[in-house]
Amino acid sequence: MHSSFSAVQVSMEIFKHRSFSWVFLVLVFCRVVVAAADPSSESLLELKSKLVDHRNSLKDWVLDGEGDKSSGKVLACSWPGVSCNDNSTTVTGLDLAFKGLSGVMSENQFNLFTDLAYLNFSHNSFSGNFPGGIFNLTKLETIDISMNNFSGPFPPEVSKLQGLVVLDAFSNSFSGSLPVEISKLESLKVLNFAGSYFKGSIPPEYGSLKSIELIHLAGNLLTGAIPPELGQLKTMIHMEIGYNTYEGSIPWQLGNMTELQYLDIAGANLSGWIPKELCNLTNLQSLFLFRNQLTGTLPWEISQITTLTDLDLSDNQIYGPIPESFAQLKSLKLLSLMYNEMSGIVPDVLAELPMLDTLFLWNNFFSGSLPQNLGKYSKLRWLDVSTNYLNGSIPPGICSRGQLSKLIMFSNKFTGGLSPSLSNCSTLIRLRLEDNLFSGDIPLKFSQLPDVSYVDLSRNKFSGGIPNDIYQAQRLQYFNVSDNPELGGEIPSETWSSPLLENFSASACNISGSIPPFVKCKSISVINLKLNNITGSIPTSISSCRVLERLYLGNNAMTGSIPDELTTLPDLSVVDLSHNGFTGTIPEKFTSSPSLVLLNVSFNQISGTIPREKVFQMMGSSAFYGNPELCGEPLKSCSMSKTTSKLTWILLGCAGLVACLAAFALGKYYFRNARKGRWRMVSFTGLPQFTANDVLKSFDSAESMAVIPPSSAAFCKAVLPTGITVSVRTIEWDTRSMKAMLGLISQMGYARHKNLTRLLGFCYNGHQAYLLYDCLSNGNLADKLEMKRDWSAKEKLTIGIARGLCYLHHQCSPAIPHGDLKSTNVVFDDNMEPRLAEFGIKFLRQLNEDPCLEAGEFRTTTKEELSIDVYNFGVVMMEILTNGRLTNPAGESVQRKPREVLLREVYRDNETNSSNTALQERINNFVDVALRCTRTRPTERPSMEDVLKLLSGPKSQRK
Asked: 20 to 30 A from 782, CA-CA: which of 25, 197, 406, 537?
């Protein structure tokens, strides 16, 4: 096999050596001419030469030199992806889909292929402008360029293709306006411009497309009103135009598209009522209008669309009851009305729908009991009625058809015992009944629940103990029965051998007995048994729990020493042993624990010396209080002898009394003179006991207190007397706000985590304070977003930020919202570990702006602020995943894009090979978490504890 190029090489070698006759040279040259005489094949070879083909997908595109010029046949007709007419004289189709190709195409690349009818470049990485010259091929019927990265305006020359039937440009980077010229294509049946960056409004002219059957414009940047002219599309079968930002309401004229079977206008900023004219869509099977701002009551006329199989109106502002007329929807499989303002009872007619398999009613105001026949007449698979005002019992036949996989009913007022029939529900995967009034024994037989992975029965009134066969749930990952004060019993002996169990929580359950030995606890990461009556010691077999991260045993009656085996656990970060009877010393080996953040041994009988390592200093004194024989920083010094210690405590007590009396007497004088320059100093763990004068002098090289940072300077640096360099933040306050602000600053100072900047101390007078922080000079995330990182570095960075935020939200009491999480407030320490800066500063300002704000009023805003932190974390995640390409407000933009578009972009930003399925799975998980964090409804976002769990799992977990 020789190409024309190799033939020329041969002839040149012959010429050089002159070993053959001129006659033979002429014959060889003629062969070259014949081989190169096929213009179509040569044109395709030229195309191949200009493309980037890392996978060598076009390796078979070669000339074999056997062509016959007189036959007129195209050699390329035998190449993969090339289609020709019956006699192989003309190329009619070109299919390069899924070839892993990239590069930029030129305008005249395809001029020769005038008979081309089919062109497919989908699922590659082509970029640049799409060549308008392709539209000179007027016989084209199908163009599929989906899943590429073509950019710029879409060429208006498309109007030349009067025979075009399919135009699929899904998931590219086109910009500008939608081409109005599309309206001239009378044969067009499929138009897919979804997942690009088109702006402006949908051209009203699109309503004149005579043959159109599918329009997909979702996930762009479209605005304006939806043109009512679209209602003229009598041939339309499938329309997706959501995930844009329209204005106004749904045009009632859309009810005139009588052939329509699928309508999706979700996430589109629509307002107003749902038009009753939609009931004219008598062929409609799927109606998706979720995540808008629709209001009004649910039109009873929808029940006239008897063909409906999927109805999703969730995440709107719809109010009122579910119409009884829904009894007519006999084909309905999915009914999602969650996240609205609906009320009334759940009508019995829903239980009569024979095809219903998914019912979402959560986050509404429904009351009364559920239909007692629910699940009896349909293969109900997923029921979620959480966060309503429902009462009564679980319908007895909820799993009678043997399909129920998820039963979610938390935060209602359900009562009574659990139906024993739930134990026969072998398909059950997820059971969430927390925060209700259920009582009686827990009748679940885990040996009959082979697939159950998540069980939450917390905050109820169960009794009778934890089922003994819990270890037989082979796929159980999460089990929570906390806050059932009448539960009682002991921890079943084989609990820890459940093979996949990760989280076991049974706090405040009046459990007694001892902790059973830890056998086969290979997956357990969280054990929460605080606030019980557990006795005995910590089993030394806990050393087998190699992935244990958090252990909560506080407020029990446990004894014995802290086992050295705890120090061998590589991921252990939080250990709470407070309010027990533990004795002995703190194991010295904890000093080498790589992950330890908090060891709370307060109020025990621990003795000896607190290890001097930095990690223990960061825990604060509250972790060690209540142990009379324990000494060392941050408690009292160990230099005092035992004989003088008692006397010292007596003297300290007297001194304390005198100090209190003096403070009372001088209080008014202090506050009256605070503005005159009286400074005070407060040091937290890690800062020597400097005086206010030490700090103030360090602001000026001349050691003059007259020159200090002006209030307008948000930050400066200072070198303290021992050579410590600190960052100094200036905070102003009103005298009336000072007390509340001092309390919050103190709480911030005791917040210690490796992913937080440390507040070392502060000095203050009556009108301002200087907060002293660790000086971190390695820059912030915003400056480094475009820095090239591999996936493992991005993963580590993201999880580090999540851990810092999780600590503020869930391990500080009360929680401290960050308030201003963004890439500029993520800084790096000497080891390039991310640390959150500026946490709590926003709320200091709020307290100062409203001196009358009480602590209780301030805390009512905390839940909302925590949710805002989660949203901002999702934004920062997407910035990291896309190397800074998706910047604020990324939350809004990512929610508008279809998930598959986002994934493709993140794959590209992270140079992910399609064959690396493990990496793709991790990326999928991270994108899912970012999307969950940036959901529109705050209550739909996960907590930071859940975020950390999701990020550490192989797949995104759903509610």
From this structure: 197
The Cα–Cα gap between 312 and 30 comes to 70
> Which residues have C-beta within 8 Å of that of residue 902, sequence separation ≥ 6?
894, 927, 931
Q: Please enumerate, as own/partner, the contacts of 428-433 that have beta carbons within 8 Å and a separation of 24 or more.
A: 428/399, 428/404, 428/452, 429/405, 429/453, 429/454, 430/405, 430/406, 430/454, 431/407, 431/455, 431/456, 431/457, 432/386, 432/407, 432/408, 432/456, 432/959, 433/407, 433/409, 433/457, 433/460
790 labelled catalytic: no
Q: Where are the beta strands (DSSP E) in 544-684?
A: 550-552, 574-576, 583-584, 598-600, 605-606, 608-609, 630-631, 680-683
Distance CA 821, CA 867 (A): 12
State the Cα–Cα distance between residues 554 and 497, nearest whole angstrom. Answer: 23
Nearest-CA neighbor of 157 among 173, 136, 175, 185? 136
Tell me how far the alpha carbon of residue 421 is from its chain's centroid. Answer: 35
* CB-count burial class (<10 Å; 0-12, 13-18, 19+) for 37: middle
As a whole number of angstroms, the distance between CA 63 and CA 67 comes to: 8
Domain residue spans in the chain? 680-774, 782-952
Residue in the block written with tokens 């007329």:
325
Burial class (CB in 10 A: 0-12, 13-18, 19+), 647: exposed
User: Of the residues 168, 384, 456, 820, which is catalytic?
Assistant: 820
Which structure tokens are listed for 400? 């009678």
**Helices 862-881 and 791-806 meet at what angle, rounded to 10?**
170
Q: Determine which of 94-98, 437-441, 701-705, 774-778 has the lowest per-residue pLDDT on average.
A: 701-705
399 touches 424 (CB < 8 A): yes
Q: Are 235 and 211 in contact (CB under 8 A)?
A: yes
CATH of domain 680-774: 3.30.200.20
Show the DSSP H helices in 527-682 as ranges: 614-617, 642-673
Bridge partners (DSSP) of residue 125 are 102
Burial class (CB in 10 A: 0-12, 13-18, 19+), 163: middle
Q: Which residues contact 649 (CB under 8 A, 6 or more apart)?
A: none
**Phi and psi dihedrals of 585, rounded to 5?**
-110, 170
**Nearest Cα residue to 102 out of 56, 148, 42:** 148
In what helix (H) or strand (E) does residue 891 lie, and over which residues does it extend? helix 890-896
Question: 376-380, 608-612, 652-656: which range is least confident on average?
Answer: 652-656
What the block records as the tokens of 709 is 């940072």
* Angle ∠(727,731,735) on CA atoms, nearest 5: 150
Contacts of 100 (CB under 8 A, 6+ apart): 53, 54, 55, 57, 124, 125, 914
Nearest to 613 by CA among 637, 627, 630, 592: 592
CB 329 within 8 A of CB 306: yes
The length of the chain in residues reads 959
Kindly state the tokens that stand for 220: 């762009």
pLDDT > 50? residue 475: yes
- In this prediction, residue 66 has a pLDDT band, given cuts at 50, 70 and 90, of low
Residue 396: C-alpha distances to residues 163, 367, 509, 757 (Å): 60, 19, 27, 54
- DSSP β-bridge partners for residue 108: none
Least confident of 85-89, 107-111, 265-269, 440-444: 107-111
pLDDT reading at 70 higher than 90: no
Distances (CA, A) of 400 to 107, 420, 678, 725: 64, 12, 75, 69
**Cβ-contact 770, 728 below 8 angstroms:** yes
Fold for 782-952, please state it. Answer: Transferase(Phosphotransferase); domain 1 (1.10.510)
Rounded CA separation 397/373 (Å): 6
